[in-house]
Amino acid sequence: MDDRLIALEAHFNAILPTLATKADVEALRAEIHKWMLGTIVGMFIGFAGLMLAMQNMARQPAVAQPPAPGPAQQTRQLEAPPPSIIVNLPPK
Question: Residues annotated as region Disordered (predicted)?
């Protein structure tokens, strides 16, 4: 019986120093709260950016109108180049 008690004491002496104390648990809790707060703030910033991007994509693009020509300005019409013709011939 004495041998079993000595074995249990040795086992407890090996395990007890590795267990978390109340101070360890409180420190862990404080650190988890910091990480949770940072994650929540980051998510709000991310969702706000996503909403802003979605609004910008959904908005109709503004059509830029050319400036009205004044009396001294001459308007110049650009001509489109002639269409190119492509002919595919089978090999002989």
Answer: 61-92
